[in-house]
Every structure is written in structure tokens, then in C-alpha cells.
Amino acid sequence: MRTVASAAAVVVAVALVACGQPQVSLDPGPREYVPADYERVLSRWTRTEHLFALSALDELLTVTATYESWDYRWAYVVRYAQDYRLSTEQRRSLLDQALAETRDHHEFFIALYGTNRRSTDLAKPTSAWIVRLVDDRGGETAPESITAIARPTALDRAYHPYLTVWRQAFRIRFPATSGGQPTLTPGARWVGLRFAGAEGREELGWNLAAPVTPAD
Q: How many CA atoms lie within 13 A of 19 on its CB side?
């Protein structure tokens, strides 16, 4: 738990996931998942945090984020291929496309709830919150795009069970490189999403099993 001073109140960000979070790997190697592995892999790559204002006990912001990494996408495609009865060729094509996207972007599926729905619309310039991709080496990157999912589909809800009718959904993309350099700093052992604004700040983090390399 951590406190952040703001003009209106003292804000505390509370992590739902304990410090002993499982380590994750950005290694782009092959995986041997079966469809039943999807829920386990989803849990591995998903983080949730709450931000409260102590003065009023208001829940200012609840964020759940899934890092759609190489590892996650592999498990997703395996599950999707079974659910939609894809042929071997269709599955291979979808997997190649999904994995290729990780070379250009770091993408996250976000579901959030706030006491003021307008202020938590991340896709609008009037949002009370900004989002940054950060790491433990000081790297900080602004999103390339934030897309609101106004009407989540049955697929969205089935594959992201934390997405409820009370939450807004977004896809946030960060560039994998900027100015010819990786946006995740080589040597980093932790990467995260930082939500910050006048009311406070919270971070959702992923501990890495191995340091980021330039190839990541």
C-alpha cells in the first residue's frame, strides 16, 4: 500500500495481487499450450489495482489490465482456434499475425471503473488520467493509441471475464521502439502501466523472469 498526496485528499493505491506475483517471460520462443491453458496464462498476464481517496473512502479508480504479450497471444490463439474450429492453416495464419504484432507494439486490454465515468474515458482528452508504459530503469512511454471498446462483444467478455457491465474497456498500444531504440529499457526486470492524474497515481506491474534485451 502506498500513499500519494493530492490537493483534495490523501490517496492510497492498494494492490490486489501480492508482492509474490509470478514472474513472466518476454521470450519470443515457441510454446506448447493446449486450449485449457488459456485461463492460467490469462491470470499470469493480468494485474488489478484499486485507488482510494481516504478522506471520503471513495474508490477513484479500479484498473484491470492484461498484457497481450507473445506468451499470452500464443495461448489465446490456441484457445480461439478450438472455440471457432479453425483449420490448421487458419490457426497458423492467425498465430503468425498475432505474434508479429508484438514486434511493433506493446498492447494491453484494459477494463476500468471510476466514480466519474466521464473522467475515466481514457480515449478522450478530457480524461482525468494519463497512462504510461514504464520500467524499473526509468523508461517511460506515451501510448501510440487508446481505443475505447464501446460495445464489448461476447468474445471480449468470454476471454476477459473481469470485464463487467460496470467497467469501461479499452485497448492501449505503445510503440515497441522510439527513435530507433526499444521503449522497454534493456536490462529492465520490471515493466508496468502507470495511471496518473491530479487525484493520485497507481501502477500495475509485471516482474520479468529475465532482463529485457534489445531484441524484446
A: 1
Taking all residues of the chain, what is their mean pLDDT, rounded to a whole number?
88
pTM of the model: 0.88
For the chain, what are the domain ranges? Answer: 2-207
pLDDT in tens, 175-216: 999 999 999 999 999 999 999 998 889 999 999 999 998 765
For residue 172, report the phi and psi dihedrals to the nearest 5 degrees. Answer: -120, 125
